[in-house]
Write a structure and sequence with these properties.
about 110 residues, mainly alpha, Cytochrome Bc1 Complex, Chain F, about 65% helix, globular, QCR7_sf, electron transport, mitochondrion
Length: about 110
Amino acid sequence: MAGRSAVSASGWWLDGVRKWYYSAAGFNKLGLMRDDTIQETEDVKEAIRRLPEKLYNDRMFRIKRALDLNMRQQILPKEQWTKYEEDKFYLEPYLKEVIREKKEREEWENK
């Protein structure tokens, strides 16, 4: 019983740290999501290219708005900040697919 409460307490504490770090990073104050800030390697560029049109357009809107806000040294009103709970890894499935295909291609070339 004591072990179970320790696990849930550490999970609660870790979630609190994650939320604090998410807010401290500051990109959410510009309306960005985590995947909007990922470094654009060749794999990431290919994953972005594969995004459905709506996701791609939403991403471009958020990035352009953030650049404009940054240039004017402003942030969004607090009610428009991206919330930790609402942020999702929209690029992750496409990125995993690109990496899987790349590994598969390398395996075929090595045979």
